Amino acid sequence: METPKVFESEYRFCEIVWENEPVRSGRLVELAAEKLGWKPTTTYTVIKRLSQRGVLENRESTVRSLIDRDAVRRAEIDELVEKKFGGSLPMFVAAFAKNRQLSGEEADELKKLIDEMRV
Fold this sequence. Notes:
Helix content is 66%, strand content 8%. By secondary structure, it is mainly α. It has 2 domains: 8-69, Arc Repressor Mutant, subunit A, CATH 1.10.10.10; 88-119, no CATH class. It has a 3-stranded antiparallel β-sheet with strand order 1-3-2. β2 and β3 form a beta hairpin. α1 crosses α2 (25-36) and α2 (25-36) crosses α3 (40-52). The longest helix has 17 residues, at 69-85.
């Protein structure tokens, strides 16, 4: 199953859901007002939109995620790599690291991840 697209403002809202789930929709209205400055109508609209796309479930006024944070992040990164780097992971990593200095520990950690991912 393909992970549904979650846009930036929706992602910030999903962060609130992931941190508090299961959460009553009324409580989500309070949290979204506090953390995002949203009005109740905006919150309910986003809950409905994300529910229709299969990201959230709103059952009996209790909201739960159907997609976890890591799946949304992976989908976003996959889209970025495909769109901006023609699907080339080495080009993505090179662009990401071009103006950064890696500590020996970070370089070792990246090497370990690469070694573990080898087929």
